[in-house]
Amino acid sequence: ARRSHAQRLREVVEEAVLAEKVGLDVYGVGEHHRADYACSAPAVVLAAVAARTERIRLTSAVTVLSSDDPVRVFQDFATLDGLSNGRAEVMVGRGSFIESFPLFGQSLDDYEGLFADKLELLLKIRASETVTWRGGEHRPPIDGRGVYPRPVQDPLPVWVGSGGNPESVARAGKLGLPLALAIIGGRPADFAPLVQLYKATGRQAGHSEESLRVAVHSHGFVAETDDQAARVFFPSMQRAMNIIGRERRWAPYDRRAFDAARSRHGALFVGSPSTVADKVQRLMTTLGVDRFLLHCPVGTMEAQEVLSSISLFGEKVAPTVKEAFQRPLSPRQS
After folding, report:
1. Terminal C-alpha separation, the chain
2. DSSP 139
3. Is residue 153 helix, strand or coil?
4. Residue 294's beta-bridge partner residues?
5. Helices 5-21 and 42-50 sit at what angle, rounded to 10 degrees?
6. Which residues, listed in sequence order, are joined to residue 160 by a DSSP beta bridge?
7. Stretch (H or E) spanning 203
8. Do both 3 and 142 map to the same domain?
9. Domain of 256?
10. 84: CB partners within 8 A, 6+ apart
11. Cα(17)–Cα(40) distance, integer angstroms
12. Model confidence band, residue 326 (pLDDT cutoffs 50, 70, 90)
């Protein structure tokens, strides 16, 4: 039976609490405005997580900045930063789904311009308690107004999320902002030119190599064996992909496509702890990645299945990957 949005939101909080317990370093929640997703307000959900955790970093994945107000986004995540005592991050993007644009009175004709203007304002707010902003095509000016609360972290971490758009990648590099790539299809190795573009643009703009950090977000699931992981994960993955696929006129998602994606060079991280750890290590080495985010709960998965995957990822996969790189990873690097 379909779970209510309320139940799913409560499950998300429990997943994040477990993620901290098993040693994971960051937990992210996406923003969606459609019936098949429960969370439209990541900062609110993450605030509930903050109240029950002490160490794990909390991030949106992503905040659809194009259809939101930068002042409110900053205030929400500065509030989260205060409640969590300096553990908040905001990952901003243009959004791969478009429901929020008409919902909040934005035109898809302004898809690119909205993000550029609002990111500029968000960074101004981050940089200064009192903000004066020229205004843009999509928002009136601000004349010497204070924006509160101020975050514990200075600056509040802002990541740019991208599905692989070269302009978004180059923008992140030019601004010196860390980049999060959503790799949900194709071959992860094919994203190497985008990482190179990001870092080259950042260096050209005068940013240090250390500041040009890269994360990857991909779907996956961990079970005791490869066969078990595939058997449990495929039905929900197929259902979720075909709902989206019908809207976007994709070919039906079948077991053949699933198996190709979970193969050695595909974008699904599905398998036993050793299989997933090996694939994550290869990705991090190939692309020069600082952080890997596993998107585990997809569609209609049972709560206990998701919790089991998180446990295995935290207790077996993450330690193996960290040991392979022979250096301890700080919370902001893992």
Report:
1. 36
2. B
3. coil
4. 218
5. 50
6. 92, 179
7. helix 192-204
8. yes
9. 172-185+198-206+217-324
10. 46, 47, 50, 53, 58
11. 20
12. low
C-alpha 95/C-alpha 92 separation (Å) is 9
CA dihedral for 311, 313, 318, 321, sign (positive or negative):
positive
How many domains does the chain divide into? 2
Question: CA-to-CA distance for 225 and 222, rounded, in angstroms?
Answer: 8
Grouping H, G, I as helix, E, B as strand and the rest as coil, residue 269 is: strand
Task: For 113-163, write each residue's pLDDT tens digit.
Answer: 899 999 999 999 999 999 999 998 888 999 999 999 999 999 999 999 999
Q: DSSP letter at 56?
A: -
Q: Of the candidates 199, 209, 216, which has an alpha carbon nearest to the alpha carbon of residue 283?
A: 216
Q: Treating both helix axes as pointing N-terminal to C-terminal, what angle do 70-84 and 111-127 enclose, rounded to 10 degrees?
A: 50
- Nearest by Cα to 276 from 267, 285, 287: 267
Three-state DSSP at 32 gives coil
Q: Is the same domain home to 148 and 227?
A: no
Q: Does the predicted TM-score (pTM) go above 0.85? A: yes
Read off the CATH number of the domain in which 25 is found: 3.20.20.30
The residue type found at 301 is M
Question: Do 44 and 131 belong together in one domain?
Answer: yes
